[in-house]
Structure formats: C-alpha cells, structure tokens
Here is the input.
Amino acid sequence: DPVMVNFLNFLERDLLAHPENIRPVTASSFAEAERLTAGIEVDLEEALEEDDDDE
Here is the structure.
C-alpha cells in the first residue's frame, strides 16, 4: 500500500531528525489510555462508514 509506505517513511524521517521526541509507553500512560477508552467497543472486522474515511 503506497499510502502506508509513505506514512512509514515519514515516521522514519521524523524519528531520525527528532529522537528527543521519542517517549516510552509507561504504565501510567497506558493506564490513562485505558481509562479514556473504557466502555468503548470496537468491531475491528466492521468497515468504516464512508464519511469516516474522509476525516
């Protein structure tokens, strides 16, 4: 997928240019992500609605 390749290339360039921005995922940041997404159910097999792809 050329879009994914371009995105990964962008990430690589950014990480190499700005390694100071790399941060580990800590237990507290993971817990915060879990708290923020608690109760949200996602079906990974379900296709996105047409208007969701444009945002």
